[in-house]
Amino acid sequence: MKMKKRKKSAITRRNRMGIIFVLPFIIGLFVFFIPALFNLFRFSMSDIQVLSGGRGYSLDFVGLSYYRKALMEDPKFNRMLLELLGTVLVQTPIILIFSLLIASILNQEFHGRTLARVIFFIPVIVSTGAIAYVQNNWVSIMTVSDLGNALADSSSSGVYALLERIDVGQGLIQVIVEAANGLNRIIRSSGMQIYVLLAALQEIPSSIYEAAKVEGCSAWECFWKITIPSVVPQIIICAVYTLISIFTATDTEIYEYIVNQEFVNNQLSFAAAMNVLYLMGVGVCLLVGGGIIKLGNLHKD
Amino acid sequence: MKRLNRSRGGTIALFGFIAIIACFSAFPMVLVVGNSLKSLSELWKFPPTIFPKNPTLKNYVDMFNAMSSSVVPFSRYLVNTILITVLGTLANVIAGSMAAYSLCKLHYPGRDFIFGLVVKALMFNTTVTAIPLYVIMSNLGIVDSLWSVILPTLGSTLSLYLIKQFMEQSIPDSILEAARLDGASEWRVFWKIIMPNIKPAWCTAILLSVQTYWNTLPNMLIYSEEKKTLAYVLNQISASGLSRAGVTAAITVFMMIVPITVFLASQSQVLQTMATSGMKD
Questions:
Q1: Which one of B21, B43, B98 has the shortest CB-CB distance to A147?
Q2: Which of A96, B124, B134, B241 has the fewest CB atoms nearer than 10 Å to its CB?
């Protein structure tokens, strides 16, 4: 009895420590994140009047009118939101499969392996500012007649110019450009995932593969029966990371549109309403993603 | 480690594929480094060259000249950026590891709820809440200070998520139990057992965090010139027109030095430790 009591108090103490350890995050969440979210909702349903002389602002409640404006009147917003969701659904699986493929190749022993790993990861850590611009648009930059045009207009017109000189058909040009840009985008957003999966693959002891080979497993079977099950947790991490990077990307059309409304046109409430809708879109994606993971787990059981 | 056991043709095809992908991946870097060494006339050539024909350091000289003519001494921006990077990274990694330990290995009511919140907070584009956040910080009186950059990132960080997932995999509960039976406090368990064993995780966290803070551009939050960051002043230099295209490339290369150094220092560490850590149940 006494023993039990002491054990219990030790556990309570440990739990208290747990809360202390996580406290910085709770403070961060409750001081910054949640109030900011709350304010965003408030702004989206009010007309904001910035008071003169630095006395803050006043709000007039207007209900859902800005949401109506975003969904019913604005010509672009619906389309851009749907496009973002489409991007998530298409890109996430492609990025994951691609990363796993590259990671399994990099996991093998060959000369220059370290160099290859560095090359695949460096885009992740340098991808800001000017280099991010080049990373996104080099297919165009390399082919426009002058850099000025490339900077002024990031469409791929220059690529056409070059390919037209080589004289291939218009349809083929389109395909080549799309493929190059698409491949570029996927490689650019897979660095971190390759890194995480590579680390996971290295954790699998080689003895398992040897045993499987003795039992007569083909490489294909080994991949599906050993490799994939061992890296499922890391695949989930990568999926979350991919979603984060797509949702927080600053080079998407919808992001630029909202920021433009917010900071250039000073349409604060309208931008806030669009932000809330954007967040709802993110929420839907998370629910769907979570559902798929749950289904996968059920299937495994 | 797997050994290669396939036909010669297959091997060649596979590495050809890797080589093409690697070219895609490395090309922007090569292009920017090349551009930073080109003269202005060569920059506008068509078709563009990848490697400069007459390499020149003029762009770098121009960059340093522009730096030395800034309103506030250039070292000021550098110190600000280093302060933000070091403080932010330390806070992120230590607080992140502590929270990860708590969320992963300790049990208390509301734990899963907190973790859910943390993951969801990660999905938010910080600009989405930029204006409401500004209002909050203004009420707290931390606008126009370095804290306005560091503090808000504490509530939402990738480090916590990555470290927690790593911890789940690599630290068996039994070793923690053993330490506790020997009378170690939670604090001691955390520093003596958890931290050394999740080194790869916090190396990765340091890497991501250094990259974020080093390039931080707190346009809205900091308006005193003497509190601005390196990324800000370099942005100003490169924003002054197309004639500065070469200087922009030089600046990009200059800004890459720190994150790349941190990466090179940590990468072998991370991958090696990951390969050899054998703490399994």
A1: B43
A2: B241
